[in-house]
Design a protein that fits this description.
This protein has 7 helices and 10 strands. It has 224 residues and is α+β, with helices and mostly antiparallel strands. The chain folds into 2 domains: 8-139, 2-Layer Sandwich (60s Ribosomal Protein L30, Chain: A), CATH 3.30.1330; 151-221, ACT domain (Alpha-Beta Plaits, 2-Layer Sandwich), CATH 3.30.70.260. A 6-stranded mixed sheet has the order 2-1-3-4-5-6. It has a 4-stranded antiparallel sheet with strand order 8-9-7-10, sandwiched between helices. It is globular. The two termini are 19 Å apart.
């Protein structure tokens, strides 16, 4: 289940560069997730704003916010105002698209497909207000994480016992799982496993997970 605001700062929203927590802070955080999934600033990105975002993204600064997030900036980074020119400086090529989609009922939905070198990743997320987000897809596979906690993202072959085995590694590290989603396109296809954690696992454990024959990639994302 999505996490609810837990304190006064969650309810009021983050310290940020304005004008809107939904259209700025939330957008920055969605894009920062993709920044960390790619391991740095992408070379190019296609950014699609849906529904309410499609009509307001320019006026509310969501265009600058998404580029700032892709460049790894936090919501309170003063450079956010200059994100359009900084993207050019970093060689980040981008395309903005706007669309209305009844398949995406949330008014503030954002989809980003980006490439860094030979690696391409795609995410979809919603900005829930107050700077809170929910990532609903990674590489067209369903997920459901908030970006508020250390998040272990694993692409692996769909093998029996995989989730139990990885959960045992986390338990050995004394790491508690807050949420877990597993998604696949078909049986024995690539499965996406996403673990939101109360604390990060040890670097040695992450390297061990990466070494497993059935694991294609594993990343530990910091809170965004």
């Amino acid at each position: 289940m999505p996490q609810e605001p837990s304190g006064v700062f969650d309810m009021l929203g983050p310290i940020m560069i304005g004008p809107s927590s939904s259209h700025t802070a939330g957008v920055v955080r969605i894009a920062r997730v993709l920044h960390f999934l790619l391991g740095g600033i992408p070379d190019e990105a296609t950014i699609t704003f849906y529904n309410s975002f499609a009509m307001t993204y320019k006026g509310h600064g969501s265009d600058r916010a998404v580029l700032a997030g892709l460049m790894g900036m936090a919501v309170d980074d003063e450079r956010l105002r200059d994100a359009l020119s900084l993207a050019e400086t970093h060689g980040l090529k981008y395309t903005f698209e706007a669309a209305i989609s009844s398949a995406r009922p949330h008014p503030n939905t954002l989809r980003i497909r980006a490439r860094r070198g030979a690696l391409t990743r795609e995410i979809e997320g919603i900005s829930r207000g107050g700077g809170l987000i929910l990532i609903t897809e990674v590489d067209e596979l369903h997920t459901n994480f908030t970006g508020q906690l250390p998040t272990l993202v694993i692409w692996a072959r769909d093998v029996r016992g995989a989730v139990a085995f990885l959960a045992a590694i986390l338990a050995y590290d004394n790491v508690n799982i807050a949420t877990l989603t597993v998604s696949r396109r078909a049986r024995q296809d690539v499965a996406l496993q996403v673990y939101e954690l109360d604390e990060p696992l040890r670097p040695a454990s992450l390297e061990y997970i990466r070494s497993l024959e059935w694991v294609q990639a594993a990343l530990l994302l910091p809170p965004v």
